[in-house]
Design brief:
The chain is an alpha+beta fold. It is built from 2 helices and 9 strands; from the N terminus they run H-E-E-E-E-E-E-E-H-E-E. The protein has a 5-stranded antiparallel beta sheet with strand order 1-2-3-4-5. The longest helix is centred in the first third of the chain and has 54 residues.
Amino acid sequence: MGHRSGHEGFTAVEVIVAVGIFLLILVGIMQIFEPSSLGYPSVQRPLQPRRNGRVAMEVMTRQIRMAGYFPENIDTDRANDQANAVEIGTGTALAVAGDLDGSGVSSTFLFCLDGTGLRRVQGARGVPASYTCRSGGVLADGVSRLAFAYYDADNNPVPNPPAPSFELDGQALGTPPSFTPMAQRGAVRRVVITLTATEAVPNQPPQTYTLTSDVRLRNP
């Protein structure tokens, strides 16, 4: 008489029951992690423009601080000497000059707001495109406000008192500046930058943050 080997396989019913239990466990795990995965992008969205704004502020602070550093003034050729660290200063835009990027050549650097993009224009001094905001690359998206305030060596506001329209020595963007007069631009020793960015988040109030930087010119 034969006997059973003890190594029989699973029946179809046992396989179905096991697969059903596994699927129930898998669905439970997905329900636990799904809310977290949906919430992750909404957390990241406000952080991205904040990070971009902080990086843009660091770039502006570093380069504006170096305004007026003219390597051409160090050589023996007096014909190529440069002057006028602050070229255009308004309440919402600032154009400064110098070797602000370490290239060895002085250029114009314009910081301005075009739509919702904070832009930096770098170009040759005296060229119209160097003073046109749309000519520049975007430093940060989502910026809703960019403001500049100017102070002299005694920390008095320039002009004193501040009054609209806020254009130092009457110079506005769009065209190369004239350097007569230079009373207001020549007095600037300190610039306070304020940057405000707003991030629209679906089904939530807009996320808004403001950064401020106080910059003292090293080479006025």
